[in-house]
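Fold this sequence, please.
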Amino acid sequence: QQGREGAIILSLRSGAPIMPVAVWGGKPFWKNLLRFRRTEINYFVGKPVLPAEMKPNREQVTGMSHELMLRIAEMMPSELRGYYTNWTGPQSGYLKPFETTASIEKKKEAAIVK
């Protein structure tokens, strides 16, 4: 389905990173539960991202949510990507990889050593 802006807005307001997670395979859960059978559920956890540090307008927030959903869709099997299967819309480029302060300090130390 088409992405919504909630995760982006929460991340912008709190500064918390977004952890993209793709989950699929749970459709027959209730039917299998009645028959005491296991249901295979697959998941893939992507790398955390942060929206760019800026005061975005509504269109930019929508673009960020589409970019996040595209990242999630790329982790899923192609037949399950739904709305984002053949995405031809713009890609904003506003989401950046999240780095912890420890990883930033390690990079600085490595640069000093060189």
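The CA atoms of residues 23 and 43 lie 4 Å apart. The first helix runs from residue 6 to 14.
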